[in-house]
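Input sequence (323 aa), recorded before submission:
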Amino acid sequence: DLAGRAVLEAFELTDKAEIDILRTTKFLEKLKQFDLAEERLEEGLKAFTESEEIAEMKGSLLFLQEKDEDAVSWFQNVAEAAPSGQLVRIANLLIREDHAGTALELLQSRRKDLSDDFAFLEALIQLSAREDERDSIENDTLAHLTLAGSPDELDRALSIATSTFSKSEHREPLLEKLKAMSDQIPAEISLTALLLSREGETAEGITLLQDAAKSSEGADRVLFLQQQLLIFRRDKDWGNSAEVAEALFNEPGGKTSQNIKNLIGILELAGREEDALQRIEEWKTLSPGSIAPWTQEADLLYRLDRGDAAIAQLRNAASQFSA
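Predicted structure, token format:
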């Protein structure tokens, strides 16, 4: 095939680095020159024995040729020593190819040596829930919470936990386990409250978070306030949402553009447009390069039947941000 030969000739002019092999293989795939693509990958695997990308591309190429059995076997071999990130990618690829059961088996086979890896546990929990394999899911979920190394990871772990235990029949055993703990860490307190709210026991969950916030400071107190806000917003309780959003804004380090924006939005939802308008100047101060506070101010003025002031504010914004 002329096109295939042209691709190979171009490859011979490269440094034959890993990226060159990957690009050449992709071109050959698009041309449906699968035999030539496989040859390049085999050469690449010999030259770059540690390349995760080449190994994954080989399995993908086998799937592309509908050689599912060979592809699954290849990925099973690769997965035996794959690092966490590659293992999760392999699992996701197998799921896309309708081999979710095999993907779960691969993850379970590596539980012992990767049980302290946040991303690995996340993939294992989500796939276990999808496949309704729940023997270890409670312990995995609690372990996942303890491994969260940042506020973003903790938010993600809590979100995954609440979705994993979205059904009451699954929530109740975990709730009992959490309630029986004599000394809960902040993440476990937060999960207990979130699950209680899902069970219709919102008042108990909020009280738990409020008590924890009163006896905490710093990141832990912020966490408990954030979970209160999450529950209040979900229940469209805008009055309490505004109170908690104000508390978050007044926490040390809490005076951020995102926090004041959230507070203004909640005040609007609570029907407190005048109060929202009064906080716009703080947003402008915290976001000096953004036109959003100015346009939001104009919108509020219009809704308060102050059209002339709204137009004047838009003109001010145009002047402020014109090139």
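Checked by second reader. The chain has a mean pLDDT of 94.
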